[in-house]
Amino acid sequence: MIAETGEVYPLPDVQPFADNWSYLKAELAWLDRVLMRSLSKQRQNNQEVDRVARSALDRSTSHWWKGFIAIDPSKGGSLVPQNPPQPLHPLGRYGNRLEVSRAHNIRLALPELCDLLGLSHFERDLLILGLAPEISRRYEKLYSFLNNDETNCKQPTVDLALRLFCRSDAEWRSARSTLSATSPLIKRKIVQLYPIPNNTARSLLSKAMLLSEKTVTYLLSEDLPIESIIPKPRKR
Description:
It is a single chain. The chain is mainly α. Helix content is 48%, strand content 3%. The protein has helices at residues 20-52, 56-60, 62-65, 95-103, 109-117, 121-135, 138-146, 158-165, 169-177, 184-187, 213-220; strands at residues 191-194, 208-211. It has a two-stranded antiparallel sheet with strand order 1-2. The protein starts with 19 loop residues before the first helix and ends in a 16-residue tail after the last helix.
């Protein structure tokens, strides 16, 4: 923690991240937990649909009729507990460790980018979601399953990101707006949205997300300056 006098007071029992890679590993561990919860929920949902559906048409329209059919938890369904959200550190997840890392001048690429562009927690999570397949291809298989459609898209879609990271309608609406043409990630081409090949859907939700090569290189680097993806404004 940095006092108003400029003196550094380390937070008790909090260690800084050793380097950029250590930070990314921590974020991937968090993402794994989120994906595994979603994976378990989707498998359970598929089992419920298979138990009730009587035809291929029933299965293809399950997203519609499930809203009108109450599935008894005692016969294979489940009730999802509604836990109130926990208060977050201003810097978000791992906030104390990020704060201590700053005090020790340990450069962390993703937090640096979030600070410069004033990105929200959702936008940070979006970057982690897009970066994961650049670190391990097993995420491609997970995304293909969790996208839950016929395209087998191995990149995260907008719909998947909103389902994973939004806990309410208000969060969903706010998060969706961060993917407009004027938002920092899209305007600066840090995140690119594109229609999935051989998919006739053209909604924003159906689009796949891909980080630019420059962004991936910067986020994985220990020493690339942020100007490699966000050039300084030219002097007039």
